[in-house]
Amino acid sequence: MNAVPEPTPVAVHEGVLELDQALPLHFGGQLDNVRVAWRLVGDPAAPVIAALGGISAGRAVVDTANDKGWWCDIIAPGGALDSSRYRILGIDFLGGSGGSTGPLAGQNDFPSIASQDQAELLRRAVQHLKLQSLEAIVGASYGGMVALSFAQRFPDLVKRIVVISAAHRSHPMATAWRSVQRAMVRYARQNGQGSEGLRLARALAMATYRSPAEFEQRFAGEATRVDGRFQFPVESYLLARGDAYAAAYIPEAFVCLSESIDLHRVEPSQIRVPTWLVAVVEDQLVPLSDMRALMQGLGGPVQLAEFSSLYGHDAFLKETQALREVFTRALSNSGDLK
User: Fold this and answer.
1) How far is CA 289 from each of CA 22, 74, 148, 221, 292, rounded to the nearest angstrom?
2) Catalytic residues
3) Which pTM does this prediction carry?
């Protein structure tokens, strides 16, 4: 029997850029001693794509010898986005729980962060790595907001952007849900139970990420008695997801980046970089109408792909084939942008 060949080790280059001057912030003020944690994975000769995800995502985008990438089901050798053809750049968001500058546990005075500030951090990383320009930014959810901000501010540094489930502003209904989540965390922190508040906020958030149809399929079973009271199948699922999240992130970072989503605004007419938009019909957080409005308002060539998914807003983590088709067209030189 022939031995199975060992996979070729992937080249991983990573570090933490420490800014030598204070970082001016979009909403005023500045941050001192800012760190930007970044990771670049792939063939050093390949063009670079920055991959940015939701507020829980960070620089670990693709699988390496040391950890599992958060987008490894989509970005991999031969994957929907083929990491054997591109070098993938990831960063930890400012204000998050990763290696970039963020609030400390118990900190109440960390400033409000804009998607424009995240775009500036990405620009600093690109400059630090001496990249002439990015082949693309592929951004999903909050990362899509950052991609739009980057394209508006630094059009000479990116050839195209692919924006999945993110628009030019946050829809008021989505802001309503997130506002309640932040209020839960703040109230719990005031009572010394920040982790419990984060657990419940994340559980509530999970109910907005997926579609009602998926929940109907998975959680229509009867309630069971647990510790003397009834517990519903969907309740068990949501609280388990909340437990996992609270174990990995700090409440202050969640509040910071959740607020940043709702503060997001760009002017579509000022974005002239070629843009591919991806909308999910069942997305409860980013309605199809907002994605269509963004398409109509953009100042440059644009294409909108719409598809249906049980996974709703989380489709960018799951829908391999639909995203493969989008990435193939968006990253080709013959993409039919209008």
Assistant:
1) 39, 26, 17, 33, 5
2) 141, 283, 313
3) 0.94
